[in-house]
Amino acid sequence: MKKIEAIIKPFKLEEVKEALTGVGIKGITVTEVKGFGRQKGHTEIYRGAEYVVDFLPKVKIEVVVETELVPKVVEAIMDVARTGKIGDGKIFVLPVEEVIRIRTGERGVNAL
Amino acid sequence: MLKGSLVPLVGIGLAWGMWMEPASVWAAEASKLDSGDTAWLLVSTALVMLMTPGLALFYGGMARKKNVLNTIMLSFVCLCLVSVQWVLWGYSLSFGPDLGGIIGGLDFLGLRGVGFEPLEGQSIPHQLFMMFQGMFAVITPALITGALVERMKFSSFVVFLMSWCTLVYAPLAHWVWGKGWLAGLGALDFAGGTVVHISSGVSALAACLLLGRRKGVGSEPMHPNNLPMTVTGAALLWFGWFGFNAGSALTAGAVAANALVVTHTASAMAACAWMGVEWLHRGKPTALGTVTGAVAGLVGITPAAGYVGVGGALAIGLGAGIFCYLAVVRLKPALGYDDSLDVFGVHGVGGTWGALATGIFATSGIPGSSDGLLAGNLNQFLVQVLATAVTWLMSFGFTLGILLAVKGIMGLRVAEEEEMLGLDLSIHGERGYGLELAEGGLSKSAGLGTHTLAATVSRPVSGPLGT
After folding, report:
1. ipTM entry
2. Which domains does chain B carry?
3. Cβ atoms of B55 and B141 closer than 8 Å
4. Element (H, E) at B210
5. What is the per-residue pLDDT across B408-440, written as a single tens digit (0 to 9) for each?
6. Is A92's Cβ below 8 Å from some Cβ in B?
7. What is the CATH number of the domain that holds A86?
8. Chain B residues with CB inside 8 Å of A6's CB?
9. Hey, is the C-beta of A100 within 8 angstroms of any chain B C-beta?
């Protein structure tokens, strides 16, 4: 099993969710996050005082899948989250040791 | 009923002369009271009252998230404390029988002898006049608080507040409105350009110079926590200002109507001016700038509202928008003082411009007004310059003196740790916004997400801010 973490532009969340459902994903976790990468921040002005905002709002999606499904999931995210402009985000793939469904105690792929 | 409920508050010592017997008053007043004037002043008093909570929202939205409640409280507590101070001794010092043109006598202490019959030359109950004026006494020190936010001890502020109202506001109000020496010279101040705006703006400058800069000014971003709240507050100020200026006519007639028209026009013009200048200068028309411009226009027209027409209002609004913008965006950074929410930039500069502009644009075409510079009356302009200069000196000197004394006795600033934690938690033990991360938590540890949140909930005081 692998965990896929994708940092994406917030307005792409809905499309990504639909694409993931399309490849058979049954659940995802979404967090509003802030951070910076190669995309520059922006400037805000309050009564003449200028602030450069380094941390930009992004959305982090976490999904755990069977290893075989990883290429399809990655492809689905890339398809819809890509705008071609800097700041589209990143996808991380991490190994997952164990999954347990709290309600039933099921373990492994069955618990996904 | 009023008498019964207030007596325990003011103590037996004052109670003896608290109220005249109403029965003896009703008969005398019937001939002089005007129901239309009284109705308008009742409404105006309520309108001006709403300005102080409006100011609390205006300022509150501009503070950082960790200081929103303290910022609101600084204004709101003025409404509470000064209202009590006003009926006990503030009104008497301001409007009691004149003592040498300097201060009012103690005859009205605890509202003794302040009944319902109109004062000479007025057509509203004396007590209504007292309460209307009380709302001005409330909002004036509240305006100062914009320069003190995010670092001042609340206890020290309360002591400063009571001293300032007694030693600065009361004499100034007496000089201009209470038959004092400035009124004797013929200084024109319809609704408080000197008494309210120059006094609060210049006092704010003195206060922030003595108080020092907030930690992190210039090096850390200091984002307003809720600009929609600031816009709401500005809208309430604009709304309440109709009572402030048009109510200052003390009648419901032509002068009030003129004041309302020029007040609205100047505010709108100044908002356009600020927005336009900012757009040209910085490339973007901001919401904060536009509403600040509106307030600057209201400040500018305040002394002039009973003395100028629409042409003068447009000129005063234009000047207020531009001069206040320059003071806030150019002067403040150049001189480096931390007038946190621009009280001096808006009220000090706007009030000064308004007081001088009254001497320029005043026209005897308005009932009860005299001519200004443009109508060939240089003398009126010079009197305005004198009134402005005196108010500047008085406000700056006395505020500095009071604050130095308070500093010596109890200190002015919160501890550095408390300032970093935020005054909402360190002074009031509460926070403005539900389960949000306390300010600083997210930017210092971006993306910590739900774990940090849980820690904040269980240990609110020593959460991520306890650095």
Report:
1. 0.71
2. 34-410 (1.10.3430.10)
3. no
4. helix B199-211
5. 999 999 999 999 999 999 999 999 997 554 444
6. no
7. 3.30.70.120
8. none
9. no
